[in-house]
From TrEMBL:
Keywords: Repeat. It comes from Psilocybe cyanescens. InterPro entries: NPHP3-like_N (IPR056884), P-loop_NTPase (IPR027417). Residues 78-233 form the Nephrocystin 3-like N-terminal domain. PANTHER family: AMELOGENIN, NACHT DOMAIN-CONTAINING PROTEIN. It holds the Pfam family NPHP3_N. This is Nephrocystin 3-like N-terminal domain-containing protein. The keyword Repeat applies.
Length: 555
């Protein structure tokens, strides 16, 4: 009796009937069978449907891969407290290749992880319907039985769980099973990782934002040893979700004001700077009062931890050099493996040709990889195909050297509102680029008679092709809102009707429109005076001055 009434004594029950009721999970092995009906198999990092997936070429993207793996392992002090990392960049920047490479590294290092590679061209991977079940399935194949038992219990209690919202699915099929696993005594030396790639290719922008929100909700309490890597283009809904204030919450550190650590740090810094001022061999050149109090305060101020780490795939990661290395290696492969290799001249391709390809890549790997695939075709001469790419020879009828790139540009432009006006602005920027490759948004708005802020609104769906943000002005001390084309090959696409079709820009027609706008601005200009160049240049006057520049007069 004692097992039924612990702690009781001196009582008797006669002719009693006792029924022991315990919950029995369904066979946990059956949960994999239940889940696999709702799994997007092509979303796995090692899926046969995605073979051969894009991944980083050897010895490229080293800095960015190290930063991500250091974040996962907790080796980077700046991102150690962040449980979500957003990897973003322009279209074709190589985000999927980086995500694939990270997944393969995690596999080789025996991490527990799950992946979902979105793709707009795949019905199963183009929507979030099977996102959670696909992630849960992968975790269930790697984690102990307790995880599978909890998932099995969920299916037993609610067979229609797969029809519920992604929020409900995430909580019941991922979060709650992980918590139960941890409560059972399970521990791991490494964080588990979820990789969600190509979030911008999910078919519903609102769902994209919900997935970002949900990722934070899943981990906000910091009770799971889990990190999430999200890779996407910086589309407006995704960017807005990451920028919301609730996501800037700070990690709390107990050893703060109670132990006056700030004062200890100030004392330490002051002593060390005094040593520098008295011992450094250039101490005679250090001014009195160095360092300033403001500088000292900045150093003392505790840097807050963020729940989010961001990585922008920009020039900071030397993508141009990585692309040059990639192209050189691939051309070497062609010269040693192509069946017409004996006809390829020594020194091919020329350095000028390689430089042109690197420049047109604009730091985006999709251009370089598209060129390599086209040139390496076993059914054609590599030397001739490279000349087609460089514009030395026209392509054969039906031959599309940039089909993959063209499909990407078309997809992005099809989602743009007011596309006619947007194309006029893009055309103006790509046909009349300033020497710095940055175009003043203020001038664009004045030239096209737009209201302040219109360019940002018009370009908000083109963040992967055109950057609109504040840049430092050369030889100036302030920043100005500037537009910059992220793909040098975009100009080639728009000016070739066979490639751009409905988005084709007729150069003659566009120049005529710009000439008419210039004349209209000049008609509004007050009569020229001898001292006019010394007067403030704003508004219509600025437009007229720009219109008088040689590259505009070519219109």
């Amino acid at each position: 009796m004692s097992q039924y009434f612990p702690g009781s004594s001196n009582f008797t029950i006669e002719s009693g009937i006792f029924n022991t009721v315990t919950h029995q999970y369904q066979n946990p092995k059956g949960v994999l069978e239940s889940l696999q009906k709702y799994v997007a198999h092509g979303a796995f990092y090692d899926s046969g449907e995605r073979f051969d997936p894009p991944k980083c070429h050897p010895n490229t993207r080293v800095a960015i891969i190290n930063r991500i793996t250091d974040w996962i392992s907790g080796l980077n002090e700046d991102t150690r407290e962040a449980f979500i990392m957003w990897l973003y960049g322009a279209a074709g920047a190589g985000k999927s290749a980086i995500a694939q490479t990270i997944a393969e590294i995690l596999h080789h290092q025996h991490f527990i992880f799950a992946t979902f590679f979105f793709s707009r061209n795949d019905p199963q991977r183009g929507a979030a319907k099977w996102l959670v079940t696909t992630l849960a399935y992968q975790l269930a194949t790697q984690l102990p039985q307790v995880f599978r038992e909890r998932v099995a219990f969920t299916f037993e209690q609610d067979p229609l769980i797969v029809t519920k919202s992604i929020e409900t699915q995430f909580m019941t099929l991922v979060r709650e099973p992980l918590l139960e696993l941890l409560h059972s005594g399970f521990s791991t030396d490494n964080h588990m990782v979820i990789i969600i790639d190509g979030l911008d290719e999910c078919d519903d922008p609102k769902v994209q934002a919900r997935i970002v929100d949900l990722s934070f909700r899943l981990l906000d309490s910091r009770d799971l040893p889990l990190k999430i890597l999200i890779a996407s283009r910086p589309e407006i809904d995704i960017s807005s979700s990451f920028d919301r204030k609730p996501f800037s919450t700070l990690a709390r550190i107990a050893l703060d004001d109670d132990y006056q650590s700030a004062e200890d740090i100030r004392h330490f810094l002051a002593d060390k700077f005094d040593e520098i001022k008295t011992q450094h061999r250039l101490r005679s050149y250090i001014p009195v009062g160095w360092p300033a109090n403001d500088s000292l305060n900045t150093l003392v101020r505790k840097k807050p931890f963020s729940t989010l780490a961001r990585i922008a795939l920009d020039d900071d990661y030397q993508s141009a050099e990585d692309i040059r290395h990639f192209l050189a290696d691939k051309f070497d492969e062609i010269k040693t493996q192509h069946r017409l290799r004996s006809y390829i001249p020594v020194g091919w391709p020329a350095n000028d040709s390689l430089n042109t390809l690197v420049r047109k890549s604009s730091g985006q790997f999709i251009y370089a990889s598209t060129v390599v695939k086209y040139v390496a075709s076993a059914h054609n001469r590599p030397t001739h195909r490279l000349e087609v790419v460089l514009g030395i020879h026209p392509p054969k009828a039906g031959d599309s050297p940039f089909a993959e790139l063209d499909a990407l540009y078309q997809h992005i432009l099809m989602g743009v509102e007011h596309v006619d006006l947007v194309l006029r602005i893009i055309d103006f920027v790509v046909l009349h680029p300033p020497s710095s490759n940055y175009y003043s948004v203020t001038f664009i708005e004045a030239f096209f008679s737009l209201a302040p802020g219109d360019v940002q609104l018009l370009m908000q769906d083109l963040g992967s092709l055109i950057s609109v943000q504040n840049y430092s002005i050369p030889f100036g001390s302030h920043k100005e809102l500037m537009a910059r084309i992220l793909h040098a090959s975009l100009k080639d696409y728009l000016l070739d009707q066979s490639r751009s079709k409905d988005f084709f820009l007729d150069r003659v027609e566009m120049h005529t429109q710009y000439a008419e706008l210039c004349l209209a601005h000049m008609m509004e200009l007050p009569s020229l005076q001898s001292n006019w160049p010394l007067q403030p240049i704003t508004g219509t006057t600025a437009c007229t001055l720009i219109c008088l520049n040689p590259y505009i007069l070519t219109a």
